[in-house]
Structures are given as C-alpha cells and as structure tokens.
C-alpha cells in the first residue's frame, strides 16, 4: 500500500476540523450544565492539557518517524499482540464513526428536515464519506484546505452578528463553580476533542513531509480548535444565559436563531448547520480512514480502498442502532465513552512509550 505524502498545513487543518466536529453543537450544553456561567474556565484548562497531550502524541510520532500507529503496535507489542490491538482500535473507530453519523441524522431530522427519514440522511452522508475514502487521503485533505478559509469566515461572521445580543451579566458571578464540576467538564472536553486524535491522526502522521513541522502543526491545530470552542461557549452563555444553554439540545443552533440585524438579516441557523456538517464530515472520515487502515494492516491487505464499500455499509446500518434512544446516548457518553477515551488516549500511548523504552533497554544489553 503506497504512502501518500501530506503537508504540515493539511495536518493542522484536519486537527482543527476534527477537534471541532461534534463538539461545536454538544459541548456548550454539557459544559454549561456543570460549570454554569464559569463554562469558559474548563475550556481554558482543556486547551493547556490538550497541548500537553499533543506533546505526548508527537513524541511517539517522532520516535517512530517512519511508522504509522499500527506499525508501531507491531514494533512495540510484537506481531500478534500488536495486530490484536490494531483490530481493537479499528473496532472502536468503527463505533465512533457510526456515532457521528447518528448525530448527523438526529440533528438533521429534528432541526432541519423533520419529514425526511433518518435512514435517507445517513445513507447520503455515508456516500460522501465513502467517496472521499476511495479518492484517497491527499484528495480528502486538499478538500479540507479548500473548505477551511470559508468555514473560518462564516464562524467569524456568526460570532460578530451575535455581539448585539450579548449580556455580560450572564458571566457573573465569576468563579462560583467548584473544582469537581470543572474537573468533570475538562475531562469531558478532552475526551470529545483532543484525546481521540491519537488513534485518528496516528495512522497518518508518518506521511507528513516534515516531522518537526508536523508536530508544530499538530499543536497549533489543537490550540486553534480550543479557542474556537472557547469563543462558542462564551458566546452561548453571554447570549442565552447559562441555564438556557444547559437546557438546549444544540445551543449553537439556538444562538443562530437569536440573530436579527435590523429585522432584515434573520434565521441564519443554516450557517451553523453547514459549519457543523462540514466539520463532522471530516471527523467521521478520519474515523473511517482509521478503521480501513487498521483492518488493512491487521489482515495484510495491499490496499485499504477495497474495504470502503463493505465497511461503509456496516457504518450506515450501525448508525441506526448504535443509540437505541436518548437516555442510552447520555449513559453511553458519560459512563462508557469517557473511560474508553481515557484508555485509548492516555493509558495506551503511555504503554507504547513504556514498552518502547523497555524494548530499547533490552536491545542495548
């Protein structure tokens, strides 16, 4: 399977789009529910912790500069155990990708197209994801480069048009949230944004043309995405208030519905929908790429693209059953997904570093 070269700038952009992903709609509500008007505090802390995690992830990438994450598994854990771990990661990315497709169908059918069957929305979305995977990683990342400036422009306009509706009293009193809810919020933010980057960026970071610049692009992407989410959460609290933000299913969408410039420019929530759909497309595609590459490596296939259609069909069907109902979704996200994310984003990379060090010590004796 030939390697496609990618640039540090493309890596930075995909880190930003991936980290924003589903967070742009769901993070504000969950953070405001715990931290209230201090919702900005865990965002600031998570940017710093995300940068520290990035240093860990890029340290692994630099140590094994010519190897993908799945090849590192073979080198560090041995051939058989390494491939079992790769299969486990592929299964998890398959599940996570199906969850993102569910979010798309759930949002579109509830907010924009209530008369359209959720199955039709999921199928159309996955067709684009499959097409992107078949065209290859380079085409996919170049597409991200094309979309990125327009997404930044739309986000800037969205933030600017919310300024007249902002009330600084909604941020008062400052510092009322205690350590426990802030810690809970920080963990949730990390698990939904930065921690899964290890298993989605890891398989492709060795294809970046310059490893040193790749690490810098990775870090810059993490910081920029954190600042975007910080602006979004602060705007939600300023405009909607902490209580309304916590009660809304999609606060950023409700934020867009409040915009009214001169009773002329109104109802621009479709802008938020577009921002979210594009960012979640790239996030889902990264999970899809990780699944395909992991399976191709585990089963020694020459090209992962032969798996695009069958795995795409599995994801489409799985998205319909991955969350049986809203209560199950909340329970999974809070009690199952977060421990899983901590396992694959903190324990697993630390094990890679430790096992690599042990093997290095044994090799020198």
From TrEMBL:
The chain crosses the membrane at residues 12-33, 39-60, 80-98, 118-140, 147-166, 186-205, 217-240, 270-292, 304-324, 336-358. It comes from the Bacteria. Pfam families: Spore_permease. Its main location: membrane. The keyword Oxidoreductase does not apply. Keywords: Germination, Membrane, Transmembrane, Transmembrane helix, Transport. It is a multi-pass membrane protein. It is found in: Membrane. Belongs to the amino acid-polyamine-organocation (APC) superfamily. Spore germination protein (SGP) (TC 2.A.3.9) family. This is Endospore germination permease. It comes from Paenibacillus anseongense.
């Amino acid at each position: 399977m030939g390697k496609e070269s990618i640039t540090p700038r493309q890596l930075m952009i995909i880190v930003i789009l991936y980290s924003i992903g589903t967070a742009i709609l769901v993070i504000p509500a969950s953070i405001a529910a715990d931290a209230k008007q201090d919702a900005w505090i865990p965002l600031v802390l998570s940017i710093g912790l995300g940068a520290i995690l990035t240093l860990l992830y890029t340290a692994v990438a630099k140590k094994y500069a010519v190897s993908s994450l799945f090849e590192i598994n073979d080198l560090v854990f041995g051939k058989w155990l390494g491939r079992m771990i790769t299969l486990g990661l592929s299964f998890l990315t398959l599940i996570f990708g199906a969850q993102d497709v569910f979010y798309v169908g759930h949002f579109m059918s509830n907010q924009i197209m209530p008369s359209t069957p959720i199955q039709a929305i999921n199928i159309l979305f996955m067709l684009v994801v499959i097409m992107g995977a078949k065209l290859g990683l380079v085409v996919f990342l170049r597409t991200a480069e094309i979309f990125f400036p327009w997404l930044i422009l739309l986000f800037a306009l969205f933030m600017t048009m919310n300024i007249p509706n902002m009330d600084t009293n909604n941020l008062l009193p400052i510092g009322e949230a205690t350590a426990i809810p802030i810690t809970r919020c920080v963990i949730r933010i990390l698990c939904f944004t930065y921690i899964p980057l290890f298993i989605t960026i890891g398989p492709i970071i060795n294809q970046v043309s310059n490893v040193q610049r790749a690490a810098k692009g990775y870090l810059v992407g993490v910081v920029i995405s954190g600042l975007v989410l910080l602006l979004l959460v602060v705007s939600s609290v300023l405009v909607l208030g902490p209580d309304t933000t916590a009660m809304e299913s999609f606060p950023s969408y409700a934020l867009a519905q409040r915009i009214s410039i001169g009773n002329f420019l109104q109802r621009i929530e479709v802008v938020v929908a577009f921002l979210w759909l594009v960012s979640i497309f790239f996030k889902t595609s990264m999970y899809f790429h990780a699944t395909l590459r992991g399976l191709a490596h585990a089963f020694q296939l020459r090209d992962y693209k032969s798996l695009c259609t069958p795995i795409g069909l599995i994801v489409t069907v799985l998205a319909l059953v991955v969350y049986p109902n809203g209560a199950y979704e909340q329970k999974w996200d809070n009690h199952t997904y977060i421990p899983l994310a901590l396992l694959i984003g903190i324990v697993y990379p630390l094990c890679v570093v430790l096992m690599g060090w042990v093997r290095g010590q044994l090799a020198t004796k």
